[in-house]
Amino acid sequence: MAIMTSPASLPSPQTFQPVLDRIAAEIEKTPGRGRPADYIPALAACDPRRFGMAVAEPDGTVYGVGDWRQPFSTQSITKVFTLALDLAREGDALWEHVGREPSGNPFNSLVQLEYENGIPRNPFINAGALVVTDRLQTQTGDAAETLLAFLRTESGNDQLSINEDVAASEAKHGDRNAALGHFMAAYGNIDNPVPVLLDQYFRQCSIEASCADLALATGFLARHGIRADGSRLLDRSQAKHINAIMLTCGTYDAAGDFAYRVGLPGKSGVGGGIIAVVPGHCTLCVWSPGLDERGNSVAGLAALDRFTTLTGLSVF
Ligand code: GLN
């Protein structure tokens, strides 16, 4: 097996499977895996030793290893898709309501909102994602169902669904998100009634999908805005914009370290999944439920770090 180490010699797709197999074998030997999210009780029971990884080519060919077909809670990974769906509908008007700068703060932080007048730093922290979901709700009348339909179509898996137990668990323990929603509403930055918005947001986060599903559903970002059926969702610049925000904000206060180690646009979720994009080349999704203290999958980060090191595929 020839594993590429130089960016000058990008791997052919046939080398993806041996790379994935090698990464899974390395991860298997790693002792520390972090801890599953326990602030959402329905997620706490996940086994941190689970691990899956998938790579999808722009034509829809997908490779995988380990638990790559096991559905898991997508959580904040969905923020990439709601952003894309809203940008496709309302374009740059969105940016009057949410910024594009890294926050340097935890994903559920409230501190910047007051002195920045209810405008969240970026669409990938919870405050920003709530704004995006609110706007998508106004555009569509059902943000979570619009998102679910999109994910089903792009992944080719019509079995994808919302785990209502997880959504209920989030709602029961969602005081921080409720506080964010009400606070932004006080600044006039939320259109819908906050309880409606929170219900949509919790249902969005509770969609379950596998690494294979998510690697495929992310394909439009590797295809510069083109959906799986060849139609255009975003123009080329908008796809570039989303990739850029993923790189700078996709892993919250760990985005600098993620860029340093992985060197790709990426987005994590507290279910333990991370998606990543090699623009023009492929998309990835890795899942392992044990998290570090910033809410990113420990084994997922390690696996993406190894992938870009072994293949030389990175944006740098
Ligand atoms: N549903 C989670 C929350 O709002 C999503 C957070 C995440 O995945 N980082 O707290």
Shape call:
globular
Total of helices: 13
Write out the strand line-up for the largest beta sheet, numbering strands in chain order: 2-1-8-7-6
Average pLDDT taken over every residue: 94
Q: N-to-C SSE series?
A: HEEEHHHHEHHHEHHHHEEEH
**What share of the residues lie within helices?**
40-55%
Number of strands: 8
Question: N-to-C terminal Cα separation, in Å?
Answer: 25 Å
Instruction: Write down the domain tally.
Output: 1
CATH class: Alpha Beta
CATH homologous superfamily placement: DD-peptidase/beta-lactamase superfamily
Strand content: 5-15%
Low-pLDDT windows of residues: 4-8
CATH fold-level label? Beta-lactamase
List cofactors, ions and other ligands. Answer: glutamine
Largest sheet: 5 strands, antiparallel
Summarize the structure.
The chain has helices spanning 16-28, 78-90, 111-115, 126-140, 143-155, 164-172, 175-186, 194-205, 211-217, 219-222, 236-249, 255-261, 298-311; strands spanning 52-56, 62-66, 72-73, 161-162, 207-209, 266-268, 273-278, 282-287. The protein has 316 residues and is of the alpha+beta class.
